[in-house]
Amino acid sequence: MRRTLMLVLATTMTAAACGAPASVPPEQEKTLKAITVDPYQADVDKFRQQREAKLTSDTGWLTIAGLYFLTKPQTTVGSAADNDVVLPASAPAKLGTLTLVKNKVSVKLEPGVRVTLLDGKPFAGGPIKSDGEGAPDRMVLGDVQVWIHQSGDRPAVRVRDKNNHLRKVFTGMKWFPVNASYKVEGTFVPFDKVKTFEVPNMLGDIDTMESPGHVKFTLNGKEHNMLAITEDEENFWFIFRDMTSGEETYPAARFLYTGRPDANGKVTLDFNRAENPPCAFNPYATCPLPPPENRLQVRVEAGEKIYERH
């Protein structure tokens, strides 16, 4: 590799000395670019590319096509206009009726309607599990999926459509340039025991979450202390707002995911990976708001910028 680089540089310098335009063979140019790429920049770029690919995939947030709260004992569902919940045109005109009893939902399908669940098993009707109980029972109707979403105490019908218009008019993510100074090391300060607390979402409902403690860190010369939310056994989730919110970045909040503390209690917070919540892209998402201690009094000019629609 060193020999190749020296040859490339020698060729360029010779051409310049002779007054000729510098010309590098394609293969050598590719090698030179690979040598000069910053590994950290490449790693963040890869993360951002994967995030956009996930958002625009068949299961990404751009495919969510509706959210209908269940407000009465029985709710009709189908693509016909006279249903309480109107599905995309590719779904059956009359899918069936949802019955709500004590926040539990059951389905009665119309005669002749065939439905499968996400695992491929046929579904003939009966009780269905919401996403408030874990992985929900999703009814699959070709390119359309229907399931019960729990927003606080309120159950709602959530609809996914692979052909949703938001997917077709997506304009792409926008990011601040990668800046290594926004990758900082914090110190985890655990609670005596995991705390359960309530977090309002953008619709005014209250979600219950768990926190194992705070992470203290210094950014732009100021000390901060953010509440860490349990994402899973290996990761923390931070819902935060900063002084760019409502201007360069999404007004409500941004999300940051990190690993758990290492053996010395250290947590790496890389704000170059800060991302918009689903609500930035889709009005049918129900996103949590940041707790008071996660409203940073500093400009975090890193990570994802506000989404620009057409």
Explain this structure.
By secondary structure, this protein is α+β, with helices and mostly antiparallel strands. The protein folds into two domains: 63-167, Tumour Suppressor Smad4; 180-294, no CATH class. The protein has four helices and 17 strands. Strand 14 and strand 15 form a beta hairpin. The longest helix has 17 residues, at 39-55. The two termini are 46 Å apart.
Strand content: 35-45%
Distance between the termini: 46 Å
The sequence of SSEs as H and E is HHHEEEEEEEEEEEHEEEEEE
Principal-axis shape equals globular
Radius of gyration: 25 Å
Poorly predicted runs of 5 or more residues: 1-17
Question: Which descriptors apply to this entry?
Answer:
310 residues, Tumour Suppressor Smad4, 2 domains, six-stranded antiparallel beta sheet, globular
Helices and strands in order, then pairings?
Blueprint: H1 2-17, H2 26-36, H3 39-55, E1 64-69, E2 74-78, E3 85-86, E4 96-101, E5 104-109, E6 115-117, E7 122-123, E8 126-128, E9 139-141, E10 144-151, E11 154-161, H4 165-168, E12 183-200, E13 206-219, E14 222-230, E15 235-240, E16 254-259, E17 266-270
Parallel strand pairs: 2-3
Antiparallel strand pairs: 1-11, 2-4, 4-5, 5-8, 6-7, 6-9, 9-10, 10-11, 12-13, 12-17, 13-14, 14-15, 15-16
